[in-house]
Amino acid sequence: MNIVLLSGGSGVRLWPLSNEVRSKQFIKIFRGEDGNYESMLQRIYRQVCKIDDHITMVIAASKSQVSSIHNQLGENVNISVEPCRRDTFPAIVLAAAYLIDIAGVSDRESLVICPVDPYVEEDYFKVLKSLGEQADKEEANLVLLGIEPTYPSEKYGYIIPNDKKCISRVLKFQEKPDMETAKNYIRQGALWNGGVFACKLKYIMDQAHKLIDFTNYEDLFDKYDTLCKISFDYAVVEKEKKIQVMRFSGKWKDLGTWNTLTEAMNEHCIGDSIMNESCTNVHVVNELDIPVLAMGLHDVVISASPQGILVSDKKQSSYIKPFVDKIDQQVMFAEKSWGSFRILDLGEESLTIRVTLNPGHRMNYHSHKNRNEVWVVILGVGYTIVDGMKQEIHVGDVLTMEAGCRHTVIAKTELQLIEVQLGKEISVYDKQKYSLES
Amino acid sequence: MNIVLLSGGSGVRLWPLSNEVRSKQFIKIFRGEDGNYESMLQRIYRQVCKIDDHITMVIAASKSQVSSIHNQLGENVNISVEPCRRDTFPAIVLAAAYLIDIAGVSDRESLVICPVDPYVEEDYFKVLKSLGEQADKEEANLVLLGIEPTYPSEKYGYIIPNDKKCISRVLKFQEKPDMETAKNYIRQGALWNGGVFACKLKYIMDQAHKLIDFTNYEDLFDKYDTLCKISFDYAVVEKEKKIQVMRFSGKWKDLGTWNTLTEAMNEHCIGDSIMNESCTNVHVVNELDIPVLAMGLHDVVISASPQGILVSDKKQSSYIKPFVDKIDQQVMFAEKSWGSFRILDLGEESLTIRVTLNPGHRMNYHSHKNRNEVWVVILGVGYTIVDGMKQEIHVGDVLTMEAGCRHTVIAKTELQLIEVQLGKEISVYDKQKYSLES
After folding, report:
1. For chain B, N or C: smaller number of CB within 10 Å?
2. B371 in Cβ contact with B430 (< 8 Å)
3. Is A421 helix (H, G, I), strand (E, B) or coil?
4. Distances A141 to A3, A158, A240, B426 between C-alpha atoms, Å
5. Average pLDDT for residues A114-142, to the nearest whole number?
6. How close A250 gets to chain B, by Cα (Å)?
7. Which of B113, B119, B127 is nearest to B249 (CA)?
8. Which pLDDT value is given to residue A438?
């Protein structure tokens, strides 16, 4: 079975836990099988891996998400990297080309495409498998997953099927109807459109070549920034006549807002927090090193990260976007392929950061034009390369690097550094990378 | 006029803005005359200074508060330092002895004693002056300030006067009555006991010598730790027969809890915060460098500092103490006589701190047994003395100090350092001080 997971946009609706580089799918908020917290991405990845023994999975993601994906899923995962954001049609075509040209999958095989961010259980993945098998039968060009509505939502798109059978021909689509229309549709057996579909790989390629002039994956990747922004629904689904829908009545939750996310949480508190007995329906997610104390609150979500602190009535939390958009703030923490960093202090002409490298990992070999840096090793062992000179480092070692000096650090064990950046023009864009061979 | 300001205990009821070293009176929460925020202490100090041109003021405070007092009021303020906590009777006697033996005030003069923490306006200080003048008349041995109750509180002590005249003989005292008794008292003209009184200095000394064997200020200071814990109310006020009360009907607010404190705030938000339009009766006090976003809340106080985050229904905030007592946490920030510090990162075997020195100020010359330290200068100029060697320092300079090495830093301009402490046994008690002459 072939599957493309669409990693989705950044989104600010789960601020402060999501920021420009950490999309909601990377927030570790669910108890995994080993008792540790896992993210939506880790959860769905684990669930997909269990579908059967022959899964070829590709994650379609933006460049800025690659580090986080490797950090959470390891180095061996297939990522179809979108060089820039171009909506779902180009992203899906790129991932399909990746499957054919890089992963060596035949275009006669079918493909299931689904987003990473719904909260679902095992039964969902069984249906994904059936969806692929249905596509193999070629009764239709496209097979969609239709989710049985649990209430007449005005937020979702609806699929109106021909009948109420498990698999049915699609009559039409309806974007976000009003409440009355939604109720009416549901009476007729309408389903939510969860953005999940299956088809032959060749079908996607045929559609792609109608709209885009390209030869193979590499060619498409190179001209990706010239493509139009267009959704797969608009470019393909809504135009297709031979299209089926498969009903799904299991658990499916869209975790787009704090309100819906907290409904899917296994516990009321994550992180250092205390709640007094008079709190009702309160959730705390605290990623800071300091405690949160909640007293006498009702229907409230509290969330704290190095990015900020949200305290919101749960229903109101859906209206967060315009407020977060107004906050002009730099990225205060991030997961990278090699570990993570967190800004500890924003000075007038300095920036102090805690850098954590995972064992065996390393930074890029790089230099900065406009800042000097100081490293103080606070945990672990490893070595540094500074202007070509290799040196073992231990706790207490101090390294100073003038602007222009090339440097990297490689972790033997988990390694932590306090990095002090010094200069009048400190910027994340001030970074020149080098290969270590040069 | 002579006045003793009682600086009071630490108190956890305003956590996280108050901690072991910052009592509530040091929290900067009121708009001062210059538009900047000032603390209760700064506010009352400013107000007392305006009473008249001949004020001799002494602040009675514990050792741990001295740095904060100098930080907020400057170096030239008189402090009667209690070597350890021994309740208000020993504290007042020590301050009175300080006035006589150190400040050279005659024991025939009168003295007004008042706590630093009520929220009051100019009229209060006019009454304090009258209180001192009334004590000068020697119609009674003690003159108390009685505050006209605004509601039948069960939290305060009551003074029951002989009549409803402005100055009246005290009939009796009543500690924290129940609601019905309080209502009954108020009908009889009873007043709240705000802990303010005036008397002759000689009167305090006479009472002191009855209970404590001492010769002068220095002798009392030296044996302070051998004294019994006893309140001035219990030791003196309740035993005195010749006692008057002066009525005060102006603004007087006890700022002991978040609920009462927010009532006295001039604005709803202090620090980096955003509140949506659906919030009602919400106060945010944010001392962190990251924004707080509050949405759809009612009657809630949000307070954030390097010590923690409180989100509480206002009424419930009075019950905070047992929860804060359970939090076993080190002091994360403090104001010192020379500036301030803030813990940025608590590592397994490291501690990273931002140290700010005010211009012209310096640390003690000191060493540590069990830790090495690294300083990175991130702002300003000054000089260091390390094992006797003087060196000018500028932004970007790095100094490393092994355990045992004596060191200090002196600020020419405002100076900021990132200090990384490294060791297995990092403790605030690991500090040996030296004089720079040795």
Report:
1. C
2. yes
3. strand
4. 17, 19, 8, 67
5. 94
6. 33
7. B127
8. 46
Residues in Cβ contact with A149 at an 8 Å cutoff, skipping those fewer than 6 apart = A156, A158, A182, A186, A190, A191, A192
**Which chain A residues have a beta carbon less than 8 Å from that of B297?**
300, 311-313
Residue A400 touches chain B, beta carbons under 8 Å: yes
Return d(Cα B204, Cα B145) in angstroms, integer: 17
Rounded alpha-carbon distances, angstroms, from residue A398 to A7, A341, A410: 39, 18, 15
**Residue B321 Cα, gap to closest chain A Cα (Å):** 11
State the average pLDDT over residues B205-225.
95
Nearest residue on chain A to B288, judged by CA atoms? A308
Q: How many other CB atoms are found less than 10 A from the CB of residue B398?
A: 18
Cα–Cα nearest to A207, from A104, A114, A97, A129: A97
B418 touches B342 (CB < 8 A): no
Name the amino acid, one letter, at A352: T
Q: Which residues of A touch B313 (CB under 8 A)?
A: 278, 295-297
Region A264-293: mean pLDDT is: 95
Tell me how close the Cα of A294 comes to any Cα of chain B, in angstroms.
Answer: 5
Are A291 and B329 inside 8 Å of each other by CB?
yes
Residues of chain B positioned with their CB less than 8 A from the CB of A324: 293
SS3 state at B325 = helix
| DSSP state, residue B24 | G
Asked whether the predicted pLDDT for residue B438 surpasses 50, the reply is no
Please indicate if any CB of chain A lies within 8 Å of the CB of B286.
yes
Strands laid side by side in the A273-275 sheet: A273-275, A292-295, B308-313, B298-305, B280-286, B269-270
| Contact list, B376 vs chain A (CB under 8 Å) | 374, 376, 420, 422
Classify the complex by whether its ipTM is higher than 0.90, answering yes or no: no
For A315, the closest chain B residue by CA position comes to B296
Q: pTM of the predicted model, to two decimals?
A: 0.87
Task: Tell me if A309 and B286 make a contact (CB, 8 A cut-off).
Answer: yes
Residue B197 pLDDT greater than 90, yes or no: yes
Q: Is B328 on the interface with A (CB under 8 A)?
A: no
pLDDT averaged over every residue in chain A: 93
Task: Judge contact between A398 and B374, C-beta under 8 A.
Answer: yes
Which residue type does B387 have?
A: D
Contact with chain A for residue B396, Cβ under 8 A = yes
- Report the share of chain A in percent with pLDDT over 70: 99
Q: Could you identify the residue written with the tokens 């600086």?
A: B7
Distance CA A415, CA A339 (A): 9
Q: A16: cis peptide before it, omega within 30°? A: yes
